[in-house]
Amino acid sequence: CHTSGMLTPNGKEYAQKIPREELTLLILKLLQAWKEPLSHFNQHIEHHQELPDDSLSKAKQISNMVHELKTGVEKSMGIISNSLNGMESSEADGLSNSNEANMMSDSDFIHCFRRDSNKVQSYLKILKCRIMPENSC
């Protein structure tokens, strides 16, 4: 996976120890790392005539959801789009434009995306519990 080089906590216990701002930045980095590869993936599958229209539609929907999620995280946490300046721009470019992600097989790509999506989902749940502890997390 092209994001394997990113340092992410292994397990919920470790993620819970990360300060809110750092966890938020980690979520944004993961989402940013998938922006370009998802765009390339969408272009790639559009050329597969044998795929049903609903599969193409679903791929575009996922890309849009990642973009909306990134925007929502930025807004809800009071972080502007430049928040990725916390990591060197070459590092951000290296993740989002990774040739490794563009060269993966479709099944590997989906596997990696699912893995990172699960991480983002877990991190968001942790943040939600910190922000709204009354949700009995």
TrEMBL record:
<dbReference type="InterPro" id="IPR009079">
    <property type="entry name" value="4_helix_cytokine-like_core"/>
</dbReference>
<keyword id="KW-0372">Hormone</keyword>
<dbReference type="Pfam" id="PF00103">
    <property type="entry name" value="Hormone_1"/>
</dbReference>
<dbReference type="GO" id="GO:0031667">
    <property type="term" value="P:response to nutrient levels"/>
</dbReference>
<dbReference type="GO" id="GO:0046427">
    <property type="term" value="P:positive regulation of receptor signaling pathway via JAK-STAT"/>
</dbReference>
<dbReference type="InterPro" id="IPR018116">
    <property type="entry name" value="Somatotropin_CS"/>
</dbReference>
<comment type="similarity">
    <text>Belongs to the somatotropin/prolactin family.</text>
</comment>
<keyword id="KW-0964">Secreted</keyword>
<dbReference type="InterPro" id="IPR001400">
    <property type="entry name" value="Somatotropin/Prolactin"/>
</dbReference>
<protein>
    <submittedName>
        <fullName>PRL protein</fullName>
    </submittedName>
</protein>
<dbReference type="GO" id="GO:0005615">
    <property type="term" value="C:extracellular space"/>
</dbReference>
<dbReference type="GO" id="GO:0005179">
    <property type="term" value="F:hormone activity"/>
</dbReference>
